[in-house]
Write a structure and sequence with these properties.
Elements: H1 3-14, H2 16-40, H3 56-78, H4 82-111, H5 117-137, H6 141-160, H7 165-185, H8 188-199, E1 204-208, E2 241-247, E3 250-256, E4 263-267, H9 269-284, E5 291-293, E6 298-300, H10 301-325, H11 334-352
Helix pairs in contact: 2-6, 2-9, 2-10, 3-7, 3-8, 4-5, 4-6, 6-9, 7-9, 7-11, 9-10, 9-11, 10-11
């Protein structure tokens, strides 16, 4: 093993707590989605109806809407319209949060003997409002993460039950290409991440690296400036960012005050895309094998094997992602996370079904 690889692994070991915490949120978000999926796995809950589950035109529509949303948020941020951004994003988050909370309020009220359509809906609405108020007034990292995990679970279910795995895989591949371009080429995804960090919105997950870390004090310009001054290796023993200074037509390196990066950040989309393939697999693959009990319905063992295999593949992609993140530079998460999840889907799917049932016939419209 080269000295460089050993150094990166050492950095991963130093950050293992934050990386393990992020992995736990990754698993937890998808696990919550699996828990509530049977309740929503009905034609009426699918975004484009039962017929839309195999139409690729709707996937392209979703991707275009993501691009439009990204451009709009960046434009509003450059205009200084932070309040409008926060209002738009929090409204969208509240809808997903309400969607994810209803199954839990149903279970609680059922065992309390007070379950009805109105009590379940009102209880979920009250908790949603309380969560949004807490997020607005005190957006500490654990508040952001709590809301973010539930929002992510709601989104992966909404998308996962709406498209067959073949379409979800196409969506994931296109999104991975876009993510790579947006981080490494145009770099506008870094600007978007900084905007969301600055506004303390739960469209990302936060894993502190140190005790006493406060997201309330986190600067909102740490991503897009992360490559500043990467002109030469730092001197031995120095752990900061280097800044170049022109002196007598020569470049002299001197330490630059390091911006606060005392936490690991992951965009919520990096969890949502692998997660929606997990949900799509258990929603649309054939009902093979014995039934497996769940609170809101039944899974079949083969479906669950593929769902868990997809999750494990996503975790392997996450481990590879952390290898690059440990080096201190922002990385596009979707190429590795989506690639790992798709590989996990194929391997576990061939084991549980064979290759044929894994790919469904699709149309454009």
């Amino acid at each position: 093993m080269s000295a460089e690889n050993e150094s990166v692994i050492d950095m991963m070991v130093d950050q293992w707590e934050s990386m393990a915490g992020m992995a736990a949120m990754f698993i937890g978000t998808i696990a919550i989605g699996l828990f509530i999926q049977p309740l929503y796995d009905i034609p009426e809950a699918r975004a484009f109806g039962e017929e839309g589950t195999t139409k690729s035109g709707f996937i392209l529509f979703e991707l275009i809407m993501i691009g439009i949303f990204t451009v709009a948020i960046i434009w509003l941020a450059r205009k200084g319209l932070d309040a409008l951004i926060k209002g738009i994003v929090m409204l969208a988050l509240s809808l997903s949060l309400f969607y994810a909370l209803q199954p839990f309020t149903l279970v609680i009220l059922y065992y309390a003997g007070a379950a009805s359509a109105s009590t379940v809906g009102l209880s979920a609405l009250a908790i949603t409002i309380a969560g949004m108020v807490a997020l607005y007034r005190y957006p500490e990292w654990y508040v952001v993460n709590s809301v973010g995990v539930m929002v992510g679970a709601g989104v992966i279910v909404m998308i996962g039950i709406s498209f067959v795995p073949t379409l979800v895989i196409i969506f994931m591949l296109l999104a991975a290409i876009y993510d790579y371009w947006a981080v490494h080429k145009s770099k506008h995804m870094l600007e978007l991440a900084d905007t969301m960090i600055g506004l303390k919105l739960p469209v990302l997950l936060v894993a502190p690296k140190e005790k006493g870390y406060s997201f309330l004090d986190q600067e909102g310009d740490i991503m897009s400036g992360a490559h500043a001054g990467d002109v030469a290796p730092p001197p031995p023993g120095y752990d900061g960012v280097m800044e170049a200074e022109m002196v007598d037509e020569a470049v002299r390196l001197r330490p630059k005050k390091k911006k606060s990066r005392d936490a690991l950040f992951m965009g919520l989309g990096d969890v949502i895309f692998p997660g929606m393939l997990v949900i799509s697999a258990v929603s649309f693959l054939p009902d093979w094998g014995p039934e497996v009990f769940s609170v809101f319905g039944e899974y079949y063992l083969a479906q669950l094997v593929v769902g868990v295999g997809t999750l494990v593949g996503g975790l392997l992609g996450y481990l590879a992602l952390m290898y690059f993140v440990a080096q201190g530079n922002p990385q596009p998460g979707l190429p590795l996370l989506n690639g790992g999840a798709i590989l996990g889907y194929l391997v576990s799917g061939i084991y549980a079904y064979d290759i044929g049932p894994l790919f469904q016939a699709i149309t454009f419209l």
